[in-house]
Write a structure and sequence with these properties.
The protein has helices at residues 2-15, 17-45, 81-90, 126-130, 143-148, 157-164, 215-220, 240-244, 260-279, 294-301, 306-335, 338-346, 351-381, 390-393, 400-426, 430-436; strands spanning 56-61, 95-107, 116-123, 135-138, 152-156, 173-176, 179-187, 211-214, 252-256, 289-293. By secondary structure, the protein is an alpha+beta fold. The chain folds into 2 domains: 2-47 and 306-436, no CATH class; 63-256, no CATH class. A 6-stranded mixed barrel has the order 2-3-8-5-7-6. The chain is elongated. Residues 313-430 form the ABC3 transporter permease C-terminal domain. Residues 20-223 form the MacB-like periplasmic core domain. It comes from Dyella koreensis.
Length: 437
């Protein structure tokens, strides 16, 4: 019966090509607008590390006091140098890393070409295991390299291709800002979106990092941060050491805590540390700490661009208008066939069969609208740069998931829109139709 009703539906659609075209276009444009904006929203609001996001936490310690704190007495987004070093030395988590972004100039081995700028992060050796960074050659530097402030570097595949033609570069040297660094690892072009580990101090949707160097070595070299540096009160630190002792926050901490018990123990450690600083006279306020996991941190920072949320709501509103128009068109189309329905009912067709016939016909309209929507979505994704920043626009892409979702939404929405017109069609009284005709 399904194939029979499908044939009836196709014949009906072909009898009214203009009306059919209007319905297909309404569904196609509506679903395309929704899927284009959804593809951007999906890219910027997804879980960047779903397998570990509940186990990775960013600790915050109030080093400014109520007078200078953020809204809601929230502590600073990052740590100052003194607090960061104390947390590093305490090492109360299974894995931990302190990091900050850097920009450096790179010169290939032998200095046979012009230097160029590379961007990356200082970190500790745990960084790579914590965030599941994939390697194609080598691995992270050892914990002893952190302690010895070794001049070692992990580079990206992209930089390795540029400097060494993609060959295994382990043990070779590159020059960064006038100093030689030994390559110990080459990563894939790893770049989670959003880039959660540097959502405050770095670029959330930027390009993959080129380099990673030990934070202990970077501090020895007095390599300044290329990210945020936020200070409060009267700041007159004068030189590097003065800056390190100031309340300026710029070091981003991350810890891995694998159980609720570990989370609670680390929270107690943070509160105890803040209480010790208060007793020592360094803080003049009660302990005020936070411990947020990846998704809580991204939500707190409101990482999802406001324009993507607004655009999605506008697109969904436009889709709703298209569906309302489709309801009207289907209602007009179905009720024009009242005499046909009356004859079918008189010949023994049940209301259930009328429902089935007209819903299948509506499903065919939805499928055609979905195909049109796919074409418009593919076209629209190539032009999202007109609405969003380039670094966000390039995240949108048409994959199999989006293809399936487009077709499913189109068919399902059309079937929902067809419920009322189909119900009206099934209420046609065969006796009245036969008498009037």
């Amino acid at each position: 019966m399904f194939s029979y009703y499908l044939q009836l539906g196709v014949r009906s659609l072909r009898r009214n090509p203009l009306l059919t075209a209007l319905m297909v276009m309404a569904i196609g444009f509506g679903v395309a607008a929704s899927m284009i904006t959804y593809s951007v929203f999906r890219a910027v609001s997804g879980n960047p590390i779903p397998e570990k996001s509940e186990r990775l936490f960013i600790p915050q310690i109030d080093s400014w006091g109520p007078k200078y704190n953020l809204v809601g007495n929230e502590p600073p987004y990052a740590l100052n140098y003194v607090d960061a070093m104390e947390l590093m030395r305490a090492h109360k988590a299974k894995r931990q890393t302190m990091l900050y972004p850097v920009w450096m100039s790179a010169l290939p081995e032998g200095g046979q070409s012009m230097p160029f700028t590379v961007q990356g992060f200082t970190a500790q050796s745990d960084f790579f295991a914590m965030f599941d960074v994939p390697f194609i050659y080598g691995n992270a530097w050892a914990a002893s390299d952190d302690e010895q402030r070794a001049a070692v570097v992990v580079i990206s595949r992209k930089l390795n291709d540029k400097l060494f033609g993609g060959a295994n570069s382990l043990g070779r040297d590159i020059t960064l800002s006038g100093h030689n660094y030994r390559v110990v690892g080459v990563t894939e072009n790893w770049n989670p979106k959003p880039r959660f580990f540097a959502a405050w101090g770095g670029t959330t949707f930027g390009d993959p990092s080129d380099i990673y160097i030990p934070i202990s070595h970077a501090l020895d070299r007095r390599i300044d941060t290329a990210g945020n540096n936020s200070c409060r009160g009267r700041i007159d630190y004068g030189d590097w050491n003065g800056w390190l002792q100031s309340n300026c926050v710029w070091v981003i901490p991350w810890v891995q805590l694998d159980s609720a018990a570990e989370v609670e123990q680390y929270r107690q450690f943070l509160e105890g540390y803040a209480a010790d600083q208060q007793r020592a006279g360094r803080y003049g306020w009660a302990p005020n700490v936070r411990l947020r996991n990846v998704m809580q941190w991204l939500d707190y920072l409101q990482v999802v661009p406001q324009e993507s949320s607004v655009s999605l709501l506008v697109a969904l509103g436009f889709f709703a208008i298209c569906l309302i128009n489709t309801i009207g068109l289907l209602l007009a189309k179905f009720l024009r066939r009242a005499s046909e329905i009356g004859v079918r009912r008189a010949l023994g067709a049940s209301r259930r069969e009328i429902y089935l016939q007209y819903l299948i016909e509506a499903g065919a309209v939805g499928l055609a609208g979905g195909v049109l929507g796919l074409l418009l979505t593919a076209l629209g994704i190539s032009g999202v740069g007109l609405l969003f920043q380039p670094q966000i626009a390039r995240l949108a892409h048409l994959d199999l998931t989006l293809v399936g979702l487009t077709l499913l939404v189109s068919v399902f929405a059309t079937l929902v829109a067809a419920l009322y017109p189909t119900w009206r069609a099934a209420q046609v009284q065969p006796a009245w139709q036969l008498k009037s005709n």
